[in-house]
Amino acid sequence: MGIFLLTVLLCMTFISASASPIDASVFNVNEISVVQTDIKILDGAWIAGATEEALAAVESLTDHEVHLCILQKEETGCYTVASMSSGILSPEAYENSTHQLLDHLADGHPYFDITTDEQWLYIQVEKSDENEWYISAFSVRNIDAEEGLNCECNLETLSAWVYSMARPRINWPFLHEELILDYFELSSFISECERASSYLQEVASKGHNIQVLEIEW
């Protein structure tokens, strides 16, 4: 109880010290007060043109990795982590790479985009009707490769279209947890996309003239 009251008092102090309301067009880490003390906000993007929610990149002070998370505004004016992925990359790789977080249409489809020395990575998230944040689109490509993997996810059908180019593509089943941001683990997600791509290539190598291949399980 004492810790909770202290947190509330700190939030109230932060709010009263603010000279102006937070600008929804610019995400400023210095204007954000977060209830959790085990993370450091690195950057973020307001979602849907409002300051109620944000997609943020944070450094965990526990595992010292960069995570993607959804920050949600509380009644106190402070923010709390509503959903957070597993670690995606190291703080050093994050700081030394070109990256951005953006909801460029302000329509509730924010994304994280980063190009490291090894790969280009794109992760888009979306809120479901049940208020779960899930991976709605995903792309990854090694820097030295001409093609990569793309993924368009559907939480309702627990599946995703996986492809390298526009065609051919495959509708691949995913578990519910695999698509939810809270359980998102980068290497496992890429591995599942690679399984789908390998299956598609195997079918194509047998001489099938396919435009779209769907798998029914």
Walkthrough of the structure:
- This protein is α+β, with helices and mostly antiparallel strands and 217 residues long.
- Helix content is 21%, strand content 36%.
Main sheet strand line-up: 5-6-7-8-9-10-11-12
The number of helical runs is: 4
Helix content: 10-25%
User: Could you tell me the strand content as a percent range?
Assistant: 35-45%
Q: Structural class of the secondary structure composition?
A: alpha+beta
Largest sheet, if any?
Answer: 8 strands, mixed
How does the overall form come out from the CA principal axes? globular
The ordered H/E elements are HEEEEHEEEEEEEHHE
Average pLDDT number: 88
Secondary structure: number of strands: 12
Q: Low-confidence runs (pLDDT<50, min 5 residues)?
A: 3-10, 12-19
* Subunit organisation of the chains: single chain
Give the distance, in angstroms, between the N- and C-terminal Cα atoms: 50 Å
Helix and strand layout, with pairings?
Blueprint lengths: L1 H16 L21 E8 L6 E8 L5 E8 L5 E6 L6 H5 L2 E5 L8 E5 L3 E9 L5 E10 L6 E6 L4 E5 L5 E5 L2 H4 L6 H20 L6 E3 L3
Parallel strand pairs: 11-12
Antiparallel strand pairs: 1-2, 2-3, 3-4, 5-6, 6-7, 7-8, 8-9, 9-10, 10-11
